[in-house]
Amino acid sequence: MNNIVERLTRLDYAIVVAYLIILIVIGYRASFSKKKKTGESLFLASKSLDWPSIGFNMWGTNVGPSMLLAFASIGYSTGIVAVNFDWYAFVFLLLLAMVFAPRYLAANVSTMPEFMGNRYGDSTRNILAWYALIKILISWLSLGLFAGGFLVRQILGIPMWESVIVLVLFAGLFAFAGGLKAIAKVNVFQMILLICVSLTLTIMGVSKVGGLSKVFHSVPGHYWNLIRPASDPKYPWYAILLGYPVAAVAFFCTDQAMVQSVLGARNLEQGQLGVNFIGWLKILSLPLFILTGILCFILFPHLKDPAEAYMTMVTHLFPPGMNGLVIVVLIAVLVGTIGSSLNSLSTVFTMDVYAKKINPNATNEQIIKVGRMTVVAGCLFAIMMALAIDSIKGLNLFDVFQSVLGFIAPPLSVVFLLTVFWQRTTRKAVNAILSFGSAFSLGVGVLYLWVLTPDKYHFWPHYLLLSFFIFLFLLIAAVVISLFDPSPVVMDKEAHATHDLPKPTKKVWRAWILLIITMLALYVIFNGH
Fold first, then answer.
1. What is the pLDDT of residues 25-66, one digit of tens each?
2. Where are the membrane-spanning stretches (predicted)?
């Protein structure tokens, strides 16, 4: 497939230009309307969110265009097996709702480093703040930029390095003009538009193939199986069963971007119902995202790269005008993600590291200056990281995303699970896992992805199993360090008291039991072939 820009009509270009002008005007107006109430801050939304807002916010954070492209690519090449990465999540969303959320809300914290700092002291808080910076840089900023560069490369047919620089400059321009605030305001609209576009694409694809029955019988039988046999080289059942939970605990239960919505809940019940709601929304990933890839496999079976599945469907099925709209919405949401990541990076570094440790007496001007320098440094790092991710061999787009997350996750999963479930965990153990354990986990990731790549060196286990083995090793290390610590500093027993935590209401239990029954039924239905 040549670049998509060759297929665009004048109407597409007109829509792209009109959309960009509207965004720039909104951004310009937002930047010159600063004399609004200062109370309109991010944190005032705190303690006011109800369950639909929490569910949609978490889902919007989780399902960006990057995952949309990745899901379509894996649907094209292997069928519905990737739905496990969304449907199996209900177990860990339940863990967040029933185990983690009550503790977070009872501790009345606004960040994850603050929660751990309350238990183990400032040293743990500082290490976790640095790890949060690494996580933002890699899992949000670099992966987001890589997905965006991949998309721009498909659309314009230009090299990856040009694509990522274009995106970074675009995101920087909006940040400078105050447009990021505007993009944040229209992001919910853009998510809804993305859902409508994907649903339309699915309906048109099913119609073109000749109905659902034809779709079902036009692909190999294993395309409809959620659970693959142990002999399956790509996604054996045991790799998903053991490996996915490591990333899922870190992502759903400890990631600031995901947990933030729950921390802003009006009360615990609304928080627990909101987390339940995202579990229901995740069911939609099959008809909205995976099915697009399967339909593309039926209609266009000879794609050179499965990662082009989504855009191939867009350009071949949509009428003139809609192509331009889809492309613009995808890029705008990606720019919003990149901009938000830059903003988070700047905030964490200037407030948690610079103002707290390096220069406690910093003036407002100095903090702003350091914040801007952090944004520039973050941009340069993300460009290099996105190009490095693009050079990964032997993995498809979906596997790249999951494997990178799989190497970031183990230390976080270990320390948060032990903090919640084992009171004997000591500060020394937590700090060792967050520092040395993180270096070990990320080091193995660098070896796997860039040095001794799995396409050439076949001694590696599946990347999901590798993530599980790292988790197991760090878990055992943390337990041993805690048990043999000569001067253990354990968490404050009062802060950890579980007998005072509120119990879930009947409404919460009903919602979760219904979701659990539904998910188990779906697993039975999609494994009966």
1. 765 665 555 544 433 333 334 467 788 888 887 787 777 667
2. 13-32, 53-75, 87-106, 127-152, 158-180, 192-215, 235-254, 275-303, 323-349, 370-389, 401-422, 429-451, 463-484, 508-526
Q: How many helices (H) and strands (E) does the chain have?
A: 26, 0
CB neighbourhood size of 443 (10 A): 12
Mean pLDDT in residue range 203-210: 92
The residue-averaged pLDDT of 312-325 equals 82
DSSP code at position 38? T
Helices (H), 396-462: 397-421, 427-432, 438-446
Mean pLDDT check: name the lowest of 150-164, 343-357, 417-431: 343-357
The neighbouring-strand residues paired with 426 are: 490
- Based on C-alpha coordinates, what's the Rg of the chain? 23
Question: What φ, ψ does residue 468 adopt, rounded to 5°?
Answer: -65, -40
Backbone angles phi, psi at 225, to 5 degrees: -100, 125
Contact 429, 418 (CB under 8 A): yes
Helix/strand/coil percent split, the chain, to 5: 80, 0, 20
Task: Map residue 236 onto helix, strand or coil.
Answer: strand
How crowded is residue 477: how many other Cβ atoms within 10 Å of its Cβ?
17
Residues 256-282 have a mean pLDDT of 87
Length of the chain: 529
Give the Cα separation of 488 and 491 in Å (integer). 10
